[in-house]
Amino acid sequence: VSTQSTGVSVPADFGRHHLGSPSHGNLAFNMKEGDPIKANSIIMSLNSPVIDDLTTNLHMTSLDSEDFSREAVDCFIESSYTGEIEAVTLENFRDVNKMSHVFKVNWLSDRCVGYFDNYLKMLDTESSYTDLVFVVNEAVYQLSTTKKKVFLDLVAQKFSQFPAGKVECFFKEYLSNFGDSNTCVIDCCIAIAQSNTDIIVKIFLEHLEKKELKVLDAGSRALLKRVDLSSCFIKKPELHERFFTVLDQITTVDQDDMKLILSLFKQASAPKKAVIPVNVSVQELLARQLLNHF
Q1: Rounded CA gap, 89 and 132, in Å?
Q2: Can you say whether residue 38 is alpha, beta or left, with left for phi > 0 and alpha for psi between -120 and 50 degrees?
Q3: What is the CA angle 220-204-218, rounded to 5?
Q4: What would the pLDDT profile of 214-227 be if each residue is shown by its tens digit?
Q5: Segment 87-102, tens digit of pLDDT
Q6: What is residue 6's predicted lDDT score, i.e. its pLDDT?
Q7: Alpha-carbon torsion, ordered 279, 282, 287, 288, to 10 deg
Q8: In angstroms, rounded to a whole number, what is the distance separating the alpha carbons of residues 225 and 181?
């Protein structure tokens, strides 16, 4: 990348030895705790058009960085000076990646994707839950904050290489607090599971059975709004009867939940490979709710 005003291409090695130089440090990154971290405004401006505008046009000499860890800010500045990402770790990755987007350091954003992809390539069937949860959490975070699916697509590709048993073991732990799962988490889990969405549905059913819920919680509602039950029941016909048997324990529904349950009937009323009657009590529940609301 070459800046229009100078023609200098970044990333570039501006000299690691300039890091921390009192005479060069005319731009302060204000931290939530501790002293500000000093950097050279010209070097930072060559890397970031945002910083260039703030310092050159708005004459700012300090930037608020309270939302980022000190380790991430140090890494961000070092990368801007050296053109490398040697200081990126699993612990500071999220903040460094976030800073690269906030300050529009495009080359650093690309390097963060490369770092993430290289980490994924090291994962295999022997990888621990901790190893896997890092990439899934980053995919969820990226989707929730930027609506981008770069990390999610990479994670889904990697998980497609794992046996179904490995995927199921991961999601059982990852969704152990199913009811607290938000929409973004559920969306990512469905995308990562791909053709194995029956795994997510089974975890949902086990959650309802264990908790003996009478009302749909947030996680359950999010799943029911997004999962493709038709394809799930075609792959696992035995889930059809179990699904509505478990759903039958939900005795309190509001108007939105009632509409949701009706949509589920439309999806699952005629599986192509297996037609299993829905519990009469569930039908009665819907009829009673229809009478109450209309």
Answers
A1: 15
A2: beta
A3: 15
A4: 889 999 999 999 99
A5: 999 999 999 999 999 9
A6: 61
A7: 140
A8: 13
